[in-house]
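pipeline stage [seq->struct] | target=Peroxidase | organism=Apostasia shenzhenica | residues=323
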Amino acid sequence: MNTTILSSSLFFLFSFLITALAINSKECLDPVTNHGSHKISPYETSCPLAEAIIFTGVERAVAADPRMAASLLRLHFHDCFVNGCDGSVLLDDTPNFTGEKTAAPNLNSIRGFDVIDAIKSELEAACPGTVSCADTLAVAARDSVSLMGGPSWEVEMGRKDSLTASKKEAEDNIPGPNSNVATLTQKFKDQGLSQGDMVVLSGAHTMGKARCATFTSRFRAQPPGSPAAGDDEFLQSLQQLCSSGSNNTLADLDLVTPATFDNQYYANLISGEGLLPSDQGLLAPDAGAAGDLVPAYASNAGAFFEDFAAAMVRMGRLEGYGV
């Protein structure tokens, strides 16, 4: 082969890869070593302070804004449900693709990007090009739960960051706030997760907030037995809260212990005080076996914590498009 042509081809390929990295990231798409399959501590020698750096960053962010704990947990969830846990939720739009940030389930909803960027900057200073953003999201989610009083678990790491994202996949894959049990179950099944995983991971709504736009159907007239059925006084309070007409007014997902990760979410469902239609729908007449888990978790925080941690590990294994 002509050496001039070969050199030109290699230069073009190298330039393309560098350009792709440059336009798709700030800190979160620096090249990361291919760690292969997930394992507990791939950074033990390459970046031994990685988890401590992430914890400190999450702790600082949550101390300044307790709501950030739920936001970081949600970032990991929304990342994993779109082509696996590969950090694609962090990517901005480029000329080559429309990212996931403007997808309907994410727009004016997911937050915490600045926190992840700050943590990743510290990781890069300590261990350049080593810790992936996908792993950073997974550890930050675990630490957020733990800091709010919830369980902890060993995070399997070795995820690789994607260079692309998909708005369409985000809109197709991420469960919506008005989904019924059948739809929720199918969305989880599509990811290789069970109905039990769906019910226990829904318990993440024990902390955080939601906008009026996501739960207005809770206080509108519904047929008897619909997922929107609930405590009349509670539903009236929601209607009053949202009466200003602003879809962006916020309400606590758990009105009893909003800043604590506990099993109160399930007790709220039993009393008809689930905020989102998809939450209260876990006890709809057609919920079946999913509904049986609600009182079980409401009465046993230990079981909820154990099952939640195990489900987070399973979700964290969803393979992405990282390179």
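stage status: PASS
auto-comment: The chain has two domains: 26-174, 181-313. Confidence is low (pLDDT under 50) at residues 1-25, 30-36.
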